[in-house]
Amino acid sequence: MKAKKYVLRNQFVGFPKKSDVEMVEEELPPLKEGEFLCESLYISIDPYQRAYLVEVGNVVLGSQVARILESRNSKFPCGRYVIAYYGWKTHGIIDETSAGVGFPPRLIQDPINHPISYYLGVLGMPGATAYFGFLEICHPKPGETIVVSGAAGAVGHVVGQIAKIKGCKVIGIVGSEEKGRWITEDLKFDGYINYKLHNISKTLAALAPEGVDCYFDNVGGEISNDVMKQMNLYGRISVCGAISSYNSIEEDKASIVQKTMIFKELNMEGFRVFRWLHRFEEVITQHGKWLAEGKLKTKETITKGFENTFQAFTGMLNGSNFGKAIVEL
Ligand SMILES: NC(=O)c1ccc[n+]([C@@H]2O[C@H](COP(=O)([O-])OP(=O)(O)OC[C@H]3O[C@@H](n4cnc5c(N)ncnc54)[C@H](OP(=O)(O)O)[C@@H]3O)[C@@H](O)[C@H]2O)c1
């Protein structure tokens, strides 16, 4: 059987170029004992595909919702759906120990009450990042003021809504007016800052004169420094991502955050979502319930066709996605 995959031809330098990857065909070998053959239905497009470097010649990193077409592993039977991590491929032969970016394959459990692509977004890794990264690090209390950057993205739009569910006031930072309208009008955030248009310090001071108690940071850089300066005593910062620097070719320059941290006695913690891998089912249950109750909404930006995967990736880096960026095969 023939399959297609994207292989890295050059390390990304600056913004990724089409010539950095190549789509090639491969003949799949017969299954060995313990292996199963998966057909990708949806591929997840994520910032880590830019941030984590693989070696030239290897498949571009990535996860997918796949259907098991053939199996020599009784725990992963034919016909079941699985969340797998075999990269940008139409098909993958894996076993239960195959762990791309640190995650082994997981069967999707019945009943499946939501679109299956949600297992790459609100019910998957980005949803878990929002849930644990916000609740376990920021410990939000009702009435507190929360800022989330990357607020219209896969992680950010969920963080803001969890904050609303917990009784907080939420300000989102986004890259367009359309995204600002989406998070305030549809998702009920209390305000937004368009970092491409507004002065962050002035706008934040106007939107949150009481100061910021928690900051969920998806982007890093100067946006985050501006937010930190307006934090209240004992504020908490969850450092999730630093996408503002992923495509940079210059050496990172440090702004001095230590004085702010000392005088405001802030608590800043970075995390990788693998920390809570053993609790991912909790997110499926809780987010599934909030979705059913209408307390949590989600959006997907779906690009059709495996041949458009690279375009979906650069689109996400440029901010074209509302909610979760996904390729449908
Ligand atoms: N720690 C973890 O375990 C973990 C897990 C998942 C994700 N992450 C991180 O969380 C962040 C969000 O991930 P995601 O999957 O939810 O991606 P996403 O927000 O759905 O997509 C990326 C978004 O980043 C924004 N962006 C691009 N360049 C930017 C810049 N220079 N400054 C500010 N914003 C920029 C764009 O939105 P705009 O239109 O608003 O610019 C774009 O839509 C990323 O930094 C990612 O690496 C971390």
Q: What would the keywords be for this entry?
A:
Quinone Oxidoreductase, Chain A, domain 1, alpha/beta, Rossmann fold, 2 domains, binds NADP nicotinamide-adenine-dinucleotide phosphate, single chain, 6-stranded parallel sheet, 7-stranded mixed sheet, 329 residues, globular
Give the strand tally: 15
* First-last Cα distance: 17 Å
Molecular shape: globular
The hetero molecules present are: NADP nicotinamide-adenine-dinucleotide phosphate
Residue share in helix: 25-40%
The amount of beta strand, in percent, is: 25-35%
Oligomer: single chain
Topology order in helix (H) and strand (E) letters:
EEEHEEEEHEHEHEHEHEHEHEHE
Supply Rg.
20 Å
Number of helices: 9
Nutshell version of this structure?
The chain has 329 residues and is of the alpha/beta class. The chain contains nine helices and 15 strands.
Structure description:
This protein has 329 residues and is of the alpha/beta class. The chain has 2 domains: 2-120 and 299-328, Medium-chain alcohol dehydrogenases, catalytic domain (Quinone Oxidoreductase, Chain A, domain 1); 125-274, Rossmann fold (3-Layer(aba) Sandwich), CATH 3.40.50.720. It has 9 helices and 15 strands. The protein has helices at 48-51, 125-138, 156-165, 177-186, 200-207, 221-228, 258-264, 280-293, 309-318; strands at residues 2-8, 21-27, 36-44, 64-71, 81-84, 91-94, 106-107, 145-149, 169-174, 191-194, 212-217, 231-239, 267-270, 300-304, 324-328. Strands 3, 4, 5, 6, 7, 14 and 15 form a 7-stranded mixed sheet that branches. Strands 10-9-8-11-12-13 form a 6-stranded parallel sheet, with helices on both faces. Strand 14, helix 9 (309-318) and strand 15 (324-328) form a beta-alpha-beta unit. Helix 2 (125-138) crosses helix 3 (156-165). The radius of gyration is 20 Å and the shape is globular. The two termini are 17 Å apart. The mean pLDDT is 96. Residues 46-48, 51, 126, 129, 150, 152-156, 174-176, 179, 218-219, 240-244, 271-273, 316-317, 319, 321, 325 line the site of NADP nicotinamide-adenine-dinucleotide phosphate.
